Amino acid sequence: MADRFGTPAYVYDLDEVTRAHDLLRAALPQPSRLLYSLKANPHPAIVRTLTALGCGAEVCSVGELATALDAGAAPEHVQYTGPGKTDAEVAEAVKSGVRWFSVDSPTGLDQVTSAADRADGPATILLRVNGTATAPGQGLAMTGVPSQFGADEAWARRHLTAVRDRIAGFHLFQGTNLADEAALLAQFDAALQTAARLAAATGYRPRVLNLGGGFGVPFARSGALPRFPALADVLAARLDAMFPGWRDGAPAVVFESGRYLTAACGSLLTRVTDVKRSHGRPVVVLESGVNHLGGMSGLRRLPPIVPELVAGDGEPRATLREAIIAGPLCTPLDTWARSADVPELRPGDLVRVPNVGAYGLSASLLAFLGRPAPREVVHARGAVTEVSQPAVVRLPAEPIEGT
Ligand SMILES: *Cc1c(COP(=O)(O)O)cnc(C)c1O
User: Fold this and answer.
1) Which of 140-144, 281-285, 305-309 has the highest mean predicted lDDT (pLDDT)?
2) Atom number in ligand 1 closest to CA 260
3) Co-location of 360 and 269 in the same domain
4) 3-state secondary structure of 257
5) Cα dist. 202→182, 198, 394 in Å?
């Protein structure tokens, strides 16, 4: 692949997307719906694959919405999520036929209600709730702590009776990247308890329960997709106890996943451009830095990224101890690892970072420093199906009318 299409390149295996989908589906209680969160990887071939497998789409922008619709998602199977939606994007989504909105606040509830009224279309609003308890073992906590996500449970409890005719149920996505089954179960339990507390306090019966997801996978290091052998049965028993109508779709149970569905399908291939010593420490410089992978580490700490040697000159390699692994950008923040033990890498070596099909390229600082983006090579059943290269382009813009 590297010889044929050059480096840096993201390589996506669609068969792995299908495999991950089948594993996750088998781990979820039935009946339930599964949405693909485009945030993890909006590559059209991946979205098409998951749509064809029956996933709905969870989108957070008009760009993601357009990608989902182009990929064949039916607008009525799209859920539009996210804090701080603008009136214009909500209006555009309603116009495109989107009916499912997750709203995060009283303002968001009014916004979607009036956009739907204006368009004469029904909106199916899920009230995203920030519950009072935070679940243990969470990667990025989004609930039980002050946050931009969701309306506080206390607010929901006070106002549910007034807004019950406008909402279809609850959205309880709590956090991401839980690889441990017990932590996942604790999180779903916290979500179900939040929903049950609200239902008990107000007599409201949700028609839809979106329990979120957060199914974890090793990021940027090798490792198999975690299995969740007990999840379906334990969750089904909890649902039987708390929302007994769920087996007949009342409430309909929904899950969302980005990471689990796509992490394992993708690797980044890149090359070593320089190796030197600095103040006694080895420094390995790559063609790819936080412009191609791990850009979000500037916002939240990621574990170190240590690429694997794929192909070199065939000579035996000693180990470089405590190496700095850096990208080519002119900032000390462009560092994947500050102290890694790696084979003695040499300029020209091909290296690979596995499990970066999720939160890889689209979560990186592509615009920073103007280097070309990696190519994206898609293959399935042993054959390359498409190759493309995203780019940041500058378009002319006009003043806003009427100013
Ligand atoms: C990010 C996000 C997801 C996807 O999370 P993964 O960990 O990638 O599965 C799903 N739902 C919401 C609301 C999100 O913000």
Assistant:
1) 281-285
2) 9
3) yes
4) strand
5) 30, 6, 51
